[in-house]
Amino acid sequence: MTVIELSNVSRWYGNVVAVNDITMSVGPGVTGLLGPNGAGKSTIMHMIAGFLAPSKGTLTVGGTPSWGSPDVYKTLGIVPERDSVYAFLTGEQFVRATAKLHKLPDVDAATQRAIEMTDMADAADRRISTYSKGMRQRIKVAAALVHDPEILLLDEPFNGMDPRQRIHMMELLAKLGTEGRTILFSSHILEEVERVSGTIQVMVAGRLAASGDFRAIRRLMTSRPHVFTVRSSDDRRLAAALVGRPYTNAVEFTGKGLQVRTNDFGAFCAQIAVLTRDHGIALRELLPTDESLESVFSYLISNQAN
After folding, report:
1. Are 196 and 229 found together in one domain?
2. Which end of the chain is more exposed for a tag (fewer CB within 10 A), N or C?
3. 207-257, pLDDT tens digit by residue?
4. pLDDT for 280-296, tens place per residue?
5. Residue that is last in its domain, among 220, 255, 286
6. Are residue 59 and residue 146 in the same domain, yes or no?
């Protein structure tokens, strides 16, 4: 069942195109919106939440356009990337105020439930001004969950969280997804998305570069051409050993060692240690030189175009 539907949606600000002709469907479960900073993820989130109107195309939530439809907030919770909290309130007061705005029949029970879900009970009586970034994120999630929404939008929810907080939040989102809720969260970190979601929507420069099961997209990312810098005890012998291997496209000497181009990420990483061992060469350094998100996503864009 499709809950969030975007059809040929664009959004521009003057001559700047933030989102360009996006068609996307999001149903129950956890979906990750992945892309580098500036890809248009927040703009997508704001349009789905009804904060912005599409400049072109149609966008519906539960079959109803979100822009100009306040009733959408009865079933939708949102955690924006920017802080949207009153720092002079305690965590409990902030969540309680949100519960009152939703006119919930039992404000006390709803507030306590949301705070406990996000593991914030121990800090609920403290002012938000004393919270760390990770704690502020979690109290924002509590406020978004207080009315038990069917749809949850989270923009970079793991920013500022320590490892324990991240694991707890990932487990919470996964649990909510298995209950049949529709959860869309954005991130610029692939690991965060694939740890939580089964479906990924990949955005680059306002465009949808890839969409589908994260395993297929991960294979597409790792099977693209890669460049590694390799330093060893004998770069010339290693270069000779690498030439002609099925996973080696090219080997070049540089001032920092060998630059090796490969079209098989997995095979190269698995075989380089074996190769150096068999030839009596000490492997000192192995670094990918093109692993920025921008380079990965640019490859997805070019692959889609071809």
Report:
1. no
2. C
3. 887 777 766 666 665 555 678 889 999 999 999 999 988 888 889 888 788
4. 999 988 877 654 444 55
5. 220
6. yes
Quick one: 151 and 134 in the same domain?
yes
Q: What is the CATH number of the domain that holds 245?
A: 3.30.70.920
214 and 229, same domain (yes or no): no
Of 220, 255, 283, the last residue of a domain is: 220
207 and 233 both lie in a single domain: no
This prediction has a pTM of: 0.71
Q: Residues 245, 177: one domain?
A: no
pLDDT, average across residues 265-276:
84
Would the pLDDT of 53 be above 80? yes
Q: Domain holding 13: CATH number?
A: 3.40.50.300
d(CA 261, CA 221): 15
Rg (alpha carbons) of the chain, rounded to whole number: 23
Cα–Cα dist 41/18, whole Å: 9
In Å, what is the CA distance from 264 to each residue of 82, 108, 150, 245? Answer: 39, 56, 42, 11
Q: How confident is the model at residue 183 (pLDDT cuts 50, 70, 90)?
A: very high
DSSP the chain: ---EEEEEEEEEETTEEEEEEEEEEE-SEEEEEE--TTSSHHHHHHHHTTSS--SEEEEEETTEESTT-GGGGGSEEEE-SS--S-TTSBHHHHHHHHHHHTT-S-HHHHHHHHHHHTT-GGGTTSBGGG--HHHHHHHHHHHHHTT--SEEEEESTTTT--HHHHHHHHHHHHHHHHTT-EEEEEES-HHHHHHH-SEEEEEETTEEEEEEEHHHHHHHHHTS-EEEEEEES-HHHHHHHHTT-TTEEEEEEETTEEEEEES-HHHHHHHHHHHHHHTT--EEEEEESS--HHHHHHHHHHHHH-
Residue ranges making up the domain that contains 43: 4-220
Give the number of domains in the chain. Answer: 2
Q: What is the largest CA-CA distance in the chain?
A: 75
